[in-house]
Amino acid sequence: MKKIAVLMGGKSSERAVSLNSGKNVAEALASLGTYEVVPIDLTEENLDTLPDGVDAAYIALHGGWGENGGVQAALNARKIPYTGPGVKASQIAMDKLKTKLVLEMKNVPTAKWDLAHPDTAKSPLPLPVVVKPPCDGSSVGISKVSSEADWPKALAAAYACQAAERPVLVEEFVPGREFTVAVVDGEAWPVIEIVAKGGWYGYEEKYTSEETRYPFLADSADSADRALEAKLQKLAVEAYEAVGCRGVTRVDFRVSPLGRCYVLELNTSPGFTSHSLVPKAGMRTGLTFAQVCDRILHSAAIDR
Ligand SMILES: Nc1ncnc2c1ncn2[C@@H]1O[C@H](COP(=O)(O)OP(=O)(O)O)[C@@H](O)[C@H]1O
Ligand SMILES: [Mg+2]
Fold first, then answer.
1. Are residues 100 and 217 in the same domain?
2. Is the C-beta atom of 264 inside 6 A of ligand 1?
């Protein structure tokens, strides 16, 4: 019987969500009856609690060391295959600035952008814009700036999350719709639309609002959405390949009213709670939650 370590918890701000993801994954894999599943609350400091003889690690850590290449490097060193992208792709995806540079280099469309510093007096791009710290998740420190008067507050909010020495990202605000596409082993799963109240998918809309809806684009009554589904799936795979991902990654998009698609970001360790979007997309392909986890476990690898 293969021994699978499910890595969860950690020390990032996303610890609580990660414990939830990890618990679900561990239960699902155990239910298959073919694995010995060992759940581990893992941090940089307790790497020695990784048991001997682990055949593969399922990474259910979100944010920080669990998603930025840290745990991936530690598992490479121990020659334990793990789910999700390797060190380099994890490092790129964790930094929205690096992600944008790589996507632009490979001609994958992203919103226009510029940089700001703590003393930048006004937006370097025409308003409206979105100001974000490049290395955070969960919409923390992100704000939309619609008038010059909002600029100082948005800049301060972004810098409340990161060091003054580093620039923050300023992005053209893309009006319109929002979508997410799971890519597993280079194959895009069904596209999910994110319909958030007010068109903004912030922290509250992600974790507390009951009003955010996640319909499948394939269920849209608008026939033009068939072509949009194919286009988003193609772009998601292009973004995944541009960043050098493997295994599972979720690619987030905004689509303007004219139908222009822009990659917002890549999530290399997406959520696995019962209502998370990657399992939802996988289940749409006909798999059960446990089979989705198994599918992703089979993509586990180490960097070569
Ligand atoms: N350029 C943009 N145009 C419009 N909305 C945006 C833009 N950037 C971010 N948003 C909104 O903010 C949310 C969070 O931004 P995102 O870049 O995905 O960061 P996070 O890593 O925190 O999820 C998005 O889901 C979207 O609703
Ligand atoms: Mg996002």
1. yes
2. yes
pTM to 2 decimal places: 0.96
- Asked whether residue 168 falls in the same domain as residue 179, the answer is no
What distance in angstroms lies between residue 144's CA and the mean position of ligand 1's atoms? 9
> Which residues span the domain enclosing 189?
92-109+174-268
177 lines ligand 1 (CB under 6 A): no
Give the end of a domain, one of 133, 151, 172: 172
Please tell me the total count of domains within the chain: 3
Residues 10 and 156 in one domain: no
Does ligand 1 come within 6 angstroms of the Cβ of 200?
A: yes
Sheet harboring 56-59: ordered strands across? 35-41, 2-8, 56-59
For residues 130 and 37, membership in a common domain is answered with no
The answer to whether residues 190 and 246 belong to one domain is: yes
Average pLDDT over residues 268-277: 94
Weakest mean pLDDT among 99-103, 149-153, 158-162, 166-170: 158-162
Give CA–CA dist 61/42, Å, rounded: 8
Is there a contact between 189 and 196 (Cβ–Cβ < 8 Å)? no
Q: Which of 281-293 are b and which e, b meaning 16 or more Cβ less than 10 Å from the residue's Cβ?
A: bbebeebebbbbb
Mutate-to-test residue for ligand 1 from 100, 212, 264, 277, highest number of ligand atoms within 8 A of CB: 264
